[in-house]
Write a structure and sequence with these properties.
Elements: H1 2-6, E1 10-11, E2 21-22, H2 40-43, H3 46-57, H4 69-79, E3 85-88, H5 95-107, E4 112-115, H6 122-135, H7 143-147, H8 164-169, H9 176-188, E5 203-206, E6 210-214, H10 220-225, H11 230-234, E7 243-248, H12 255-260, E8 263-267
Parallel strand pairs: 3-4, 6-7, 7-8
Antiparallel strand pairs: 1-2, 5-6
């Protein structure tokens, strides 16, 4: 400590009576410590943000208050690592996704993002911007944007909330498709494709590891009387390479039978959150 003081490496405040602080010079630092004041030259400004919208959409009057990509990039550089997951609950024009993709392109990172937007422009502006910056915009002035920043994303629209209590008491039961969407994504974490649903076959979709089936009708009598039996399990058809994840009100099969049929069983609604590994 005395050596640091003698080298003038300790600062005691303007009047000499403050808490001692160690001086660190820029030449000794890895990068630059963030400042509380961010100048336009460093993080952009409103006009730059509007120009970025113009680059992407060919017009700039589609969103009133866009943020410059460099501003969000600065935040990401300070607050995230190269494999962070970034949440923007008020996504607006989609600047956060643009900044994440641009920064990944710049430093080879694998950051991911979740955008949430409740306004009616969520698809036409927020998601559309992400689509365009990924694929590339031919008329863009920025060369990286012209070629495309790369990456992927999935777009989802939320339906009515599915309340487990409503399944238990029979009130406001969801449709087959609504519950199929819910159990598939909850169980697999993968994107749901409603075009793959075949309600007659009770088939919901296919994940990387499982075929997913749902024994369900929005009818309490059906739910009380329906169980996964050996006959019903065999009626699912010829077994393929993947295991089967079957959601049903109950089952009349023991674990040995389920293993023989390569079935992972999830009871509705109590194990609706069970993950398929």
């Amino acid at each position: 400590m005395l050596k640091l003081v003698s080298d003038n490496r300790i600062w005691f405040g303007k009047d000499g009576n403050g808490m001692p602080r160690r001086k660190t010079f820029l030449s000794e630092s890895d990068g630059i410590s963030p400042w509380t004041w961010w100048a336009n030259d460093d993080v952009g400004h409103t006009q730059e943000a509007k120009k970025e919208i113009l680059d992407v959409f060919g017009k700039q009057d589609i969103f009133d208050t866009p943020k410059p990509v460099r501003l969000v990039q600065r935040i990401l550089q300070i607050a995230t690592s190269t494999d962070s997951l970034i949440l923007d609950s008020f996504a607006g024009s989609g600047t956060t996704a643009h900044a994440v993709l641009a920064l990944n392109k710049e430093d080879g990172g694998n950051r991911k993002f979740i955008l949430v937007e409740c306004e009616d422009y969520a698809d036409s502006i927020t998601a559309e911007r992400v689509r365009r910056v990924i694929k590339g915009v031919k008329g863009a002035s920025d060369e990286h944007l012209k070629k495309g920043l790369g990456g992927t994303f999935s777009y989802f629209e939320l339906g009515k909330a599915i309340e487990l209590d409503s399944i238990l008491d029979g009130k406001n039961l969801p449709s087959y498709l609504e519950l199929a969407r819910y159990v598939f994504y909850t169980a697999t974490g993968e994107e749901f494709d409603e075009r793959k649903v075949n309600e007659k076959r009770l088939f919901v979709g296919e994940s990387k590891t499982h075929e997913v089936y749902l024994f369900y009708q929005p009818d309490m009598d059906y739910l009380k009387k329906t169980a996964l039996t050996l006959e019903r399990a065999e009626s699912l058809g010829k077994m393929k390479d993947k295991r089967r994840l079957v959601f049903a009100p109950t089952k009349y099969l023991d674990q040995e039978q389920l293993d023989a049929l390569r079935i992972d069983f999830a009871q509705l609604p109590f194990e609706i959150y069970k993950l398929a590994q």
